[in-house]
Predict the 3D structure of the following.
Amino acid sequence: MSVEGIVKADTADRLVNGSAAGESGNGRLLEIRDLDVSFELARGAARALRGIDLDLHAAEIHGLVGESGSGKTVTSTCIMGLLPVPPARINRGRILYRGTDLLELSEPDRRRTRGREISIVFQEPAKYLNPSLKIGEQITEMLGLHMGMERNRAMERAGELLELVGLPNSRRILSGYPHELSGGMKQRMMIAMAISCDPSMLIADEPTTALDVTLQLQILNLILKLREQFSMGVLFISHDLAVVHEVSDRVSVIYAGKIVESAARDRLFNEPLHPYTQLLLLSIPDAQKRGQRLKTIPGRVPDAEHTPAGCAFHPRCPLAEDICAREIPPTTEHAAGHTAACHMIGKKWISS
Ligand SMILES: Nc1ncnc2c1ncn2[C@@H]1O[C@H](COP(=O)(O)OP(=O)(O)OP(=O)(O)O)[C@@H](O)[C@H]1O
Ligand SMILES: [Mg+2]
């Protein structure tokens, strides 16, 4: 299906159902299959993603959690078609959006899906806002480009969007510049821009990391409200397990470019199978406590140029045996919807 096909089907679905329904026949909005990405550097290849599988349903919040360098942003930029190719190379895999492989779309078609079908909010909004363009111009540009709105209507819509994300006095904000906004306000503005063209899917890549705890909470509540209101599927990326717990329906844990465990949120937190997930949970005294960060697992995520053989986690794993250094563990389903990739599952448990 061409991107026009996707957009038309989407529009038709919205008209018929009054919602952002229209995911592919199996109920999934996004299906990532065996996505493998490396960076070709002068000194050698860095394997950033080693066969990722990930699903997102409409109106679902899927949390992707992992330490720094584990491949979260490579995943999000790859979905958005914003990976710098080269040096990046997509070795294999598919990213099906409503059944259409985004990796096979032409660049103009990809550009049309960006913002209109799938949007992204990054950690540092300041980096992505144009400092010399008034806020109103930045939002209306998107509305004109994707929705064909004429200027006055677009400006009116921009005002509505700012109110929606909790920025009152929208008229004053629209005629101002990004530097006049605080960090929390900039992030709200980025979210307003991201949802301006009514996308069916939002990627939030560490959207609250740069904010203090109170603002973090406000932004998380905003994302929950928007999901409710617009039935958007959200891929919520964070290194903060407590934040992920707060918002997600399903959680996937990524380690050195591979999803090591995935399950419904409560199942993952109550019955973690992978030693890495267990250690992550143990590193947080109270998983419900906000503002806690992943920490205190001895060692660190290997960089993409030096991924250990076998299970990449084995040098840090208290349960590792010989096989872990030799063979990559297959991903297996241990209960409905609960997958993990570890040779040692069921053999021992780490007790707290
Ligand atoms: N442009 C690039 N060139 C070379 N290597 C890269 C590039 N971008 C990412 N990588 C490597 O890919 C791996 C994954 O990086 P990524 O940015 O996805 O991590 P992350 O999980 O988002 O980390 P963080 O929590 O710090 O944002 C890392 O080893 C990183 O060094
Ligand atoms: Mg990142």
Notes: Residues 39, 46, 48, 66, 68-74, 84, 87, 239, 303-304 surround adenosine-5'-triphosphate (ligand 1) (CB under 6 Å). The radius of gyration is 21 Å.
